[in-house]
Amino acid sequence: MELRQIQYFVAVAEQLHFGRAAEQLHIGQPTVSQQVRRLERELRTQLFDRSTRTVSLTPAGQALLPEARELLTALDSLTAKAQHLAASDTTTFRVGIGSAVGQRLDDFLDALTTASNGACFEFQTLPARTRLEQLRAGRLDAAFIRGIDSAPGLRLLPLWCDPMVVALPASHPRAAESRLDLADLAELPLLVASRTANPVLFETVTAACRKAGFEPTVGPPSTGLQDTLAGISAGTPGWTPIYPTAVNAVSSRRVMVLPLDGDPITIRMSLALREDADPNLMELLATASAQLRDTIAREGETCAELTPEVSGSNEIRT
């Protein structure tokens, strides 16, 4: 999937006409039609109903349009802030990020702008294991990493804690309540990425289930949040954990998102750098991380695990 496909989808959805959308985008209509068709194949769903006279959004297209617009808005914000950081300096630092960072990336960039003295940062969205591999290989200067306490050769700067919420069918007997006990979900399959694909998330969630008194029945491995939510919306029995920064991805009225009572399922986000990183970069990112933690604390969010530097036994080796 490419960002230009999302851009073309939004343009056609707003114009409800492929020709006018192409004029707005200053490209040929065949290109717009081809890329929208390709996006539909990749999403495995039809976004538009087409006839010789009219174009209209399908229910799936209507459901996905808000997320598509948010994605383009986030890209514009990220680009503008990155350009601002680059305005007065040619030094570029490469930072790996993951999905579902949400507005916390904006908060980090605000802190970074204050501390950066004009340094330029380039952000790359990559899977967690790839981020660690590229950081060790020197192809990244820093990386956002969830859920690890230590990693050989790396220094971890704590950023924030994610108390996870859960998505479940709106038809579930407890879905109308304001909060859930994790044990309320014992009869539903857990829909989560496999242990191989996301060991931190898998182990954290299954351990929390055992602590709540039940062994979770793990359903088919999740291939992505949107696919899992679409399945729950369509009637697939199950529940899935969601990072609070990704709650806006839930748009279906057939899916309910609720916080958990008792001990939350919490996963820490840290910024990883190599131990031999440029001292100026190390100081800059340590300052920005501290400012971000202060901002979050002023918002009233606390996390006992946020200490000046992270160390411990929960290691990831690549």
Automatic annotation (TrEMBL):
UniProt-listed Pfam families? HTH_1, LysR_substrate
Alphabetically ordered keywords of this record: DNA-binding, Transcription, Transcription regulation
* Entry GO terms, CC: protein-DNA complex
Q: Does the keyword rRNA processing apply?
A: no
Asked whether the keyword DNA damage is assigned, the reply is no
Q: Where is the HTH lysR-type domain?
A: 1-58
Q: Which domain of life is it from?
A: Bacteria
Q: Which InterPro entries match?
A: LysR_HTH_N (IPR000847), LysR_subst-bd (IPR005119), WH-like_DNA-bd_sf (IPR036388), WH_DNA-bd_sf (IPR036390)
Q: Which PANTHER family match?
A: HCA OPERON TRANSCRIPTIONAL ACTIVATOR HCAR, TRANSCRIPTIONAL DUAL REGULATOR HCAR-RELATED
Family affiliation: Belongs to the LysR transcriptional regulatory family.
The protein's name: DNA-binding transcriptional LysR family regulator
What is the organism field in this record? Nocardiopsis mwathae
